[in-house]
């Protein structure tokens, strides 16, 4: 039994863990490990939005373009592709890239291939919407949790190794306890989402400024290799409350501190659905996410079912990753997206503007 | 908004609260207050057990005798009476007394009327079972929580006053955060239940020694004054998962660290049922209670329903009180009770015996 917080990230606590040192979880779970060489990661959600089915070929082509820019030396270590319909009925395709070197990400972002394409007038004129939402958590600002030990998805894919059985799971508050920075910091929100350029109601280019400690959760399900029984477990037992909960957050997030919630389906480069899905939630703070997760009937139903089945899982892969990040290292930019897209929905003009 | 921990019980924390200072609960709740004059309370559960319906008149008479001993100057400040059937099909009547002065309790316990009666050979010969389970938490070792503000039941009745709206509720871990001692202490179990005299399998007199930080929860429902709608809310929505959860704990507590669980009905001196009930649970530690409460489907169902209805409650009164106590100040004594009664079920002879 080891701590979810890797040894090189442990420090003298000023805030205590929620559970005593001799706490033992009721079943095994694992976290991703990286050496001390991994200082900071980049999580980039790069989207293409369209409102009419006829636009799908163009949107898929745009997604393939984005994925193409990943091929160079400064591209992400790992990426995956997703599709989802948002609360306004728009389709959104995303390329989700993970970098282990923020400098490489900067070079990628500033390359002609990326910057030139993003800044081009064609982006305003081709009838599609585009967005990029990027957070850059340091190694002490995120955590992972897997019910399996190999072929890690998401940020785990750039970390490379898996822990032994970890102690901090199976209780409310364990997510916070797994984030190294929580040893000394409450991870509280600082400021509000602010529109610093453009007007969401008018389309065009909009830039939103984030704030410290926006929490980002990716919570995934992979039933590609699942047998009939586990497919049924996922599709018939886990998925219904999951969809209900995620739809609730998508449609009612504003009052809860959930800035954005997307339940996405993994796709291939041709836009075909894979047997993988995940939820991407942006929250005002980890505390807001905690309060919802601990009290909402749909999430408690998911939690109870997970507790019941977790020790029997074979090929059904369930995991999550949660980060907080500094406001100055977040990017939230939109081109011709509808005004409820991403961080725009809850962003306001700066005070005095 | 004030802390559940009264000002005179606050101290510099070595263990942090689970939530940040600016946490605000989603609905109001209150705790009982006593001045700094209240140093320690006595919670005495005094039982009469019988197996045959024909013994009920004798058992009720014994209960009335116990209640009669409360009348003197050294009797409890407050008491109530209960009835329940245990997992072995035995009826148990209890007089539950609260003292605000442990010295008065000691005088009461040592009085001829009480000691003489308890020690008498008739107790072994009259065909009834008897038990007394007493804990004596100091003021920093217990907490209360009420969804109402007047006529407080249980330990609140000896504390006398009600707080303003308190901060520490509405999240898992708030129970611990309301106990003053948790500011500096994990409240961990120390030792095991030990049979120090007698043999539960043989009946007769048995004495069980407790250990530090046994957690005792009394969790109550009072629908005496409820209108039709709130009676239905309690009886049709809250009671079914409550009964299911409490039966589960009664029958499966041993593996969970729940030493004893009794869902009792309040009665009058003639044994007639009142529209009040409460659960009395003894747990190996607060941590064991926390883990069950946060993860068991029945308790989560109760919790979700409570969250949904709490702001609309008018006459339906819901509350709880939770204490930990020092092992040396606990009394667990049994006379001719079946061997699964109270602490006897999980108690073992001392090592080496």
TrEMBL record, chains A, B:
Cofactor(s) this protein cannot do without: heme b
Q: Which InterPro entries match?
A: Dimeric_a/b-barrel, OXD
Identify the Gene3D superfamilies for this entry.
3.30.70.100
* Keyword terms, alphabetized: Heme, Iron, Lyase, Metal-binding
Q: GO terms for molecular function, please?
A: lyase activity; metal ion binding
Q: Does the keyword Iron apply?
A: yes
Q: Name one Pfam family in it.
A: Dehydratase_hem
What does the sequence similarity comment in the record state about its family?
Belongs to the heme-containing dehydratase family.
Q: What is this protein called?
A: Aldoxime dehydratase
Q: Which organism is it from?
A: Amycolatopsis camponoti
């Amino acid at each position: 039994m080891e701590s979810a917080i890797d040894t090189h990230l442990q420090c003298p606590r000023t805030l205590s863990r929620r559970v005593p040192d001799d706490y033992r979880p009721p079943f095994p779970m694992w976290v991703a490990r990286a050496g001390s060489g991994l200082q900071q990661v980049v999580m980039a959600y790069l989207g293409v939005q369209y409102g009419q089915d006829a636009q799908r070929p163009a949107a898929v082509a745009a997604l393939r373009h984005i994925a193409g820019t990943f091929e160079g030396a400064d591209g992400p270590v790992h990426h995956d592709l997703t599709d989802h319909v948002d609360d306004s009925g728009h389709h959104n395709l995303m390329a989700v890239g993970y970098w282990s070197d923020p400098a490489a990400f900067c070079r990628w972002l500033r390359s002609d291939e990326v910057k030139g394409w993003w800044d081009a007038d064609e982006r305003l004129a081709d009838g599609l919407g585009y967005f990029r939402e990027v957070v850059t958590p340091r190694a002490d600002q995120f955590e992972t949790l897997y019910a399996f030990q190999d072929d890690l998805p998401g940020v785990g894919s750039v970390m490379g190794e898996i822990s032994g059985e970890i102690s901090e799971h199976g209780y409310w508050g364990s997510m916070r306890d797994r984030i190294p920075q929580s040893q000394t910091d409450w991870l509280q929100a600082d400021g509000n989402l602010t529109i610093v350029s453009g007007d969401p109601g008018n389309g065009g280019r909009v830039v939103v400024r984030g704030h410290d400690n926006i929490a980002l959760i990716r919570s995934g399900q992979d039933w590609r290799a699942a047998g009939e029984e586990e497919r049924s477990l996922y599709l018939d037992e886990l998925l219904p409350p999951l969809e209900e909960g995620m739809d609730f957050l998508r449609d009612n997030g504003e009052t809860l501190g959930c800035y954005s919630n997307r339940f996405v389906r993994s796709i291939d480069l041709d836009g075909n659905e894979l047997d993988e899905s995940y939820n991407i939630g942006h929250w005002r703070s980890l505390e807001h996410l905690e309060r919802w997760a601990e009290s909402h009937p749909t999430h408690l139903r998911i939690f109870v079912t997970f507790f019941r089945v977790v020790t029997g899982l074979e090929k059904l892969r369930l995991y999550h990753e949660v980060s907080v990040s500094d406001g100055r290292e977040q990017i939230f930019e939109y081109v011709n997206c509808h005004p409820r897209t991403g961080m725009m929905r809850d962003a306001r003009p700066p005070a005095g503007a």
